[in-house]
Amino acid sequence: MSQATEIIRFYYDYKSPFTYLAFDPAIDLERTHRVQLTFVPHVFDFRAYGGELPARTNRDWFKVRYLYADARRFANERGLIIRGPQKLFDSRLALISGIFADRAGNFRQYSRTVFERFFKRELDLESLDALARLIEECGMDAAGFRHFAAREGETALAEALAQGERDGVFGVPTLIVDGEPFWGNDRIAWVVKKLDRMGLRR
C-alpha cells in the first residue's frame, strides 16, 4: 500500500461560523489519515443570503437567523460560542493576516484565536491595529504583518482567490479532496469515507 500523503485544500473565511465549526475536525483528519491540509482564504459573500442589510426581506432574515441557529446548535454540542456579528464584515484584511500567519508557521494557533474572539464579538476583523496586536500575541512580528498588509498582502490574497476560482469554490468551508469538493462543516464525515476508500486511513 502506498504511504503517499494526500493534500487537502481547506478554503476558509474568518467571518464564517461554519468554517469555525469545521476547522478542528478538518485538522483532525491529519491524525486519522495520511493527509496534509493546506489553508486557502476565500472571501465569503453574505449577500448571497439576502443582499445588503437594508434590502433584506423578512424571508431573507428568517434564512440568516436559521443559519445562525444551526451554527449555535453545532457549537453548543462542542462547548463553542458563536454570536452573530452585528454587521457585515469585510474580512479581506483578516484573511491577509491569515496568509501572513501561515507563512510564519503559526496559522493554526492564530486562526483558532481569530475564530474564537470574532464569534465572541471581541475582535474587529477590519482593524489593522487589532489584528496586529493579535499577531504579536501569537508570537509573530506585528511590524512584519503591517508591512505585508501594506505591500504584497493584496497580491497574495488575489492569488488565493484565483486558486478558489480554479477549484470552483462558491462558499466556505470547502475541502477539496482528490479534485472533489465538500462544502459545509457537516460534510467532514463524507470526507472521511472518501479518504477511507482511497486507502488513506492510518
Highlighted features:
202 residues; alpha+beta; four-stranded mixed beta sheet
What does this structure look like?
With 202 residues, this protein is an alpha+beta fold. The chain has a single domain (6-197), classed as Glutaredoxin. The protein is 52% helix and 11% strand. It contains eight helices and four strands; from the N terminus they run βαβααααααββα. Strands 2-1-3-4 form a four-stranded mixed sheet. The longest helix is centred in the middle third of the chain and has 21 residues, at 58-78.
Write the layout of secondary structure elements.
Elements lengths: L5 E7 L4 H16 L2 E7 L16 H21 L13 H12 L3 H13 L8 H10 L4 H9 L2 H15 L6 E4 L2 E4 L4 H10 L5
Parallel strand pairs: 1-2
Antiparallel strand pairs: 1-3, 3-4
Helix pairs in contact: 3-4, 3-5, 3-7, 5-6
Uncertain segments: none
User: What's the CATH class label?
Assistant: Alpha Beta
Strand content: 5-15%
Order of neighbouring strands in the sheet with most strands: 2-1-3-4
Shape: globular
Q: What is the residue-averaged pLDDT?
A: 92
- The CATH architecture would be 3-Layer(aba) Sandwich
CATH superfamily descriptor? Glutaredoxin
Number of strands: 4
Cα distance spanning the termini = 11 Å
Note the run of SSEs as H and E: EHEHHHHHHEEH
| Quaternary organisation | single chain
What structural class do helix, strand and pairing data support?
alpha+beta
User: What helical percentage do the residues reach?
Assistant: 40-55%
Structural domain tally: 1
Largest sheet: 4 strands, mixed
Radius of gyration: 17 Å
Continuous helix count: 8
